[in-house]
Design a protein that fits this description.
Pfam family, one: Chitin_bind_4
Helix content: 10-25%
GO cellular component, one term: chitin-based extracellular matrix
Order of helices and strands: HEEEEEE
InterPro entries: CHIT_BIND_RR_consensus, Cuticle_Struct_Prot, Insect_cuticle
Strand content: over 45%
Keywords: Cuticle, Signal
Mean pLDDT: 87
Number of strands: 6
Strand order of the largest sheet: 1-2-3-4-5-6
Shape: elongated
Low-confidence stretches: none
Structural class: mainly beta
Organism: Drosophila melanogaster (Fruit fly)
Number of helices: 1
């Protein structure tokens, strides 16, 4: 019986705990065209992303898109991390203070 009372009390405390607030979108902009795009968004919890993309070498067999941008997020450790990147014919090239840097060859 004591176990049941303790269980019910803990259950009531868990239900009374405040729920985590869901983040909301505070800014969202985009522009998409046939040969380019750009977007920029941010949420109330500090996450954000922005990018600009451009189609290159249009009409050739080397036609490809190049994108530059950044994103910011809050990790499980509570720290905010930002990654700046370029993605093009040379692949995805991220940079960030928290990312390891490859040694010079």
């Amino acid at each position: 019986m004591k176990f049941l009372i303790v269980f019910v009390a803990l259950f009531a405390v868990a239900l009374a705990a405040p729920a985590a607030e869901e983040p909301t979108i505070v800014r969202s902009e985009s522009d998409v065209g046939p040969e380019s795009f750009k977007y920029d968004w941010e949420t109330s919890d500090g996450q954000a992303a922005q990018a600009v993309g451009q189609l290159n070498d249009i009409g050739t067999e080397n036609e490809a898109i190049s994108v530059s941008g950044s994103y910011r997020f809050i990790a499980d450790d509570g720290q905010t991390y930002q990654v700046n990147y370029i993605a093009d014919k040379n692949g995805f090239q991220p940079e960030g203070a928290h990312l390891p840097v490859a040694p010079v060859a």
